[in-house]
């Protein structure tokens, strides 16, 4: 009985993890891995459900629910580690500091576009738009934290066209 409960837990954790990854891949428009994930998820889920239907007891349902919970956690953990996708980071700096920062980031290989904007009380600001793979965000944040006070915004983007910087792998271009 304990082995069956463990199997239900593990099967549902794997099934839910696959379902979570499937949703993430779909949201990022990466379709090929979705087919395998859906097939395996359906197969595993059906087998786990069969085990629960043939058993009796609240413990099997609890194992199923805990497996689902842990599957979401594991799927999210995996997705954060592989960090698929592109980000656009917008940084707002005073003109002089912004020019220095943009040049430093370009020397590091980041794709940086600048434009003049106006902040609080109409003060001139330089707006830096930086496009990078999501997995490089911690490194960029470390670089930006060394520049003093700044305001920034981070957005997920689904596609880019054209050059996004020498630092980025060609497969990031779609």
Describe this structure in words.
- There is one protein chain.
- With 174 residues, this protein is of the alpha+beta class.
- The protein has two domains: 2-82; 86-172, Alpha-Beta Plaits, CATH 3.30.70.120.
- The protein has five helices and four strands, in the order H-H-H-E-H-E-E-H-E.
- The protein has helices at residues 2-27, 32-54, 58-82, 95-107, 137-145, and strands at residues 86-93, 111-118, 124-133, 151-157.
- It has a four-stranded antiparallel beta sheet with strand order 2-3-1-4.
- Strand 2 and strand 3 (124-133) form a beta hairpin.
- Helix 1 (2-27) packs antiparallel against helix 2 (32-54) and helix 1 packs parallel to helix 3.
- The longest helix has 26 residues, at 2-27.
- It is elongated, with a radius of gyration of 23 Å.
- The N and C termini lie far apart (50 Å).
Topology:
Layout: H1 2-27, H2 32-54, H3 58-82, E1 86-93, H4 95-107, E2 111-118, E3 124-133, H5 137-145, E4 151-157
Helix pairs in contact: 1-2, 1-3
Summarize the structure.
By secondary structure, this protein is of the alpha+beta class. It is built from five helices and four strands, in the order αααβαββαβ.
Strand content: 15-25%
Largest sheet: 4 strands, antiparallel
Radius of gyration: 23 Å
The strand line-up of the biggest sheet is 2-3-1-4
Number of helices: 5
Q: Architecture of the largest domain in CATH?
A: 2-Layer Sandwich
What's the CATH class of the largest domain, please?
Answer: Alpha Beta
Number of domains: 2
CATH fold assignment of the largest domain: Alpha-Beta Plaits
Backbone shape: elongated
Mean pLDDT: 86
Query: What's the total count of β strands?
Result: 4
- The proportion of residues forming helix, as a percent range, comes to 55-70%
Q: H/E series, N to C?
A: HHHEHEEHE
Cα distance, first to last residue? 50 Å
Q: Classify the secondary structure makeup into a structural class.
A: alpha+beta
Low-confidence stretches: 169-174
């Amino acid at each position: 009985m304990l082995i069956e409960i463990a199997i239900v837990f593990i099967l549902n954790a794997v099934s839910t993890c696959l379902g979570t990854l499937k949703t993430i891949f779909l949201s990022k428009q990466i379709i090929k891995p979705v087919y395998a994930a859906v097939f395996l998820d359906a197969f595993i889920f059906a087998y786990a459900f069969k085990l629960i239907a043939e058993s009796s007891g609240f413990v099997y349902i609890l194992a199923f629910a805990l497996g689902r919970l842990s599957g979401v956690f594991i799927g999210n953990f995996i997705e954060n580690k592989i960090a698929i996708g592109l980000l656009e980071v917008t940084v707002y700096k005073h003109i002089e500091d912004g020019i220095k920062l943009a040049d430093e980031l370009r020397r590091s290989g980041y794709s940086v576009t600048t434009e003049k904007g106006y902040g609080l009380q109409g003060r001139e600001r330089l707006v830096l738009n930086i496009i990078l793979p999501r997995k490089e965000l911690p490194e960029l944040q470390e670089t930006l934290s060394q520049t003093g006070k700044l305001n920034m915004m981070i957005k997920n983007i689904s596609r880019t066209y054209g050059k996004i910087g020498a630092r980025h792998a060609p497969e990031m271009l779609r």
